[in-house]
Write a structure and sequence with these properties.
InterPro entries: FBPase_C_dom, FBPase_class-1, FBPase_N, FBPtase, Fructose_bisphosphatase_AS
Keywords: Carbohydrate metabolism, Cytoplasm, Hydrolase, Magnesium, Metal-binding
Protein name: Fructose-1,6-bisphosphatase class 1
Distance between the termini: 33 Å
Family: Belongs to the FBPase class 1 family.
Pathway: Carbohydrate biosynthesis; Calvin cycle
CATH superfamily of the largest domain: Fructose-1,6-Bisphosphatase, subunit A, domain 1
Helix content: 25-40%
Order of helices and strands: HHEEHEEEEEEEEEHEHEHEEH
Largest sheet: 8 strands, mixed
Bound molecules: 1,6-di-O-phosphono-beta-D-fructofuranose, magnesium ion
CATH class of the largest domain: Alpha Beta
């Protein structure tokens, strides 16, 4: 994380309506390392705005949902994945970025080899929704290029979650929004009709106590005991251990589920499960879990793989997967405690029973 230098302000710019670039300028001041981050985020935003215009064309823009190839765990590459990748990486070419790691490229894409920064992206999150006009998004994380590191080598990206300098996502929904953190809270921008991101909320805060969970329930029979135990207790409602009814949502676009949680609380789970290729879940650590976890922590929420805080992990493969649970701090902590408890012998441990070991 970019530490404030002596004399630098950590105050969040509070003026609603401020443009993204003015907000970043105010944060960066005269600090050249911050200016590089600001430049890079502005470039990412420019790429995202071009992508938003493309997405808004819908079927008139071409067959976005055409499948180009199929992935190892069920994710195929769609035409819009490639368009998104080209637009975002193209926009980063004018930023001080040495290389980009993308979900859509096996190896890092080299830009300015001696650039000071590295960017990791999921250019289009929620590809399975392209043909249904449901919100999709772009997720990004910005890192420093380690001193002397060859940016074309994936190892340059094997950094810790807390090494992120900036992270965010753009959601292409009924309105286009950018959620951004540079380590000074989580900021919410909305794209105005003239094509400028403007600050809507400089102090996003994840609400606690919202009884709403997001998980793909069709995988229930593949989950491990701790996840079943947690979901069973939510489903039991008022008469169960939680003593309240829960609501469930699953958009199958992580950005859309995350955005709902930023707006009204709740929790998202994509655990590891017993399906081939899903033992570490589905989400990718560097360009999906790290940035969303950074945004969450900066908004007072939390993110875990069940055992450790996501931001405490260090990547060891470019496209590494990770079980991913994020949302309101109290609820994420609860899921982690289910993982600590003994699982019993194919049945729920007595510790998971009605009274539970939980608050
Ligand atoms: O179809 P599933 O297995 O429920 O998965 C949905 C999840 O997969 C993802 O779409 C993965 O993202 P991509 O579209 O970038 O592959 C998440 O956004 C979403 O939460
Ligand atoms: Mg994704
Ligand atoms: Mg994607």
């Amino acid at each position: 994380m970019l530490e404030p230098q002596a004399g630098q302000s950590t105050a969040t710019p509070a003026a609603a309506g401020l443009t993204l670039s003015d907000t970043l300028d105010a944060w960066a001041g005269a600090d050249s390392a911050r200016q590089q981050v600001a430049h890079t985020v502005n470039a990412l935003a420019k790429g995202a705005i071009a992508l938003a215009a493309k997405i808004a064309e819908g079927p008139l823009g071409g067959d976005f949902a055409a499948t180009l190839s199929s992935g190892e765990a069920g994710e195929g590459q769609k035409a819009l994945d490639v368009i998104a990748n080209d637009l975002i990486i193209g926009a980063l070419a004018e930023a001080p970025v040495a290389a980009v790691a993308s979900e859509e490229n096996e190896a890092p894409v080299l830009l300015a080899a001696d650039g000071p920064l590295l960017v990791a992206i999921d250019p289009l999150d929620g590809s399975s929704n392209i043909d249904t006009d449901i919100s999709v998004g772009t997720i990004f994380a910005v890192f420093r290029r380690p001193e002397g590191a060859n940016a074309a080598d994936p190892v340059a990206f094997f950094q810790g979650g807390r090494d992120q300098l900036a992270a965010g996502y753009v959601i292409y929904g009924p309105h286009v929004a950018l959620m951004l953190t540079v380590g000074a809270g989580t900021w919410h921008f909305a794209l105005d009709r003239a094509g400028t991101f403007r600050l809507a909320d400089a102090q996003v805060s994840v609400k606690e106590g919202t009884p709403e969970f997001a998980i793909n329930m069709s995988n229930y029979h593949h989950w491990d005991e701790p996840v079943r135990g947690y979901v069973d207790d939510c489903l039991a409602g008022k008469t169960g251990a939680r003593e309240r009814d829960f609501n469930m949502r699953w958009v199958a676009s992580m950005v859309a589920d995350a955005h709902r949680i930023f707006r009204r609380g709740g929790i998202y789970l994509y655990p590891g499960d017993s399906r081939k290729g899903y033992h570490q879940g589905r989400l990718r650590l560097i360009y999906e879990a790290f940035p969303v976890a950074f945004l969450m922590e900066q908004a007072g929420g939390a993110a875990t793989d069940g055992c450790a805080a996501i931001l405490d992990l260090t990547a060891n493969a470019l496209h590494q997967r990770v079980p991913f649970v994020f949302g309101a701090k109290d609820e994420v902590g609860r899921v982690a405690r289910y993982h600590l408890a003994p699982a019993g012998h194919g049945e729920r441990s007595p510790l998971f029973a009605r009274r539970g070991l939980f608050i």
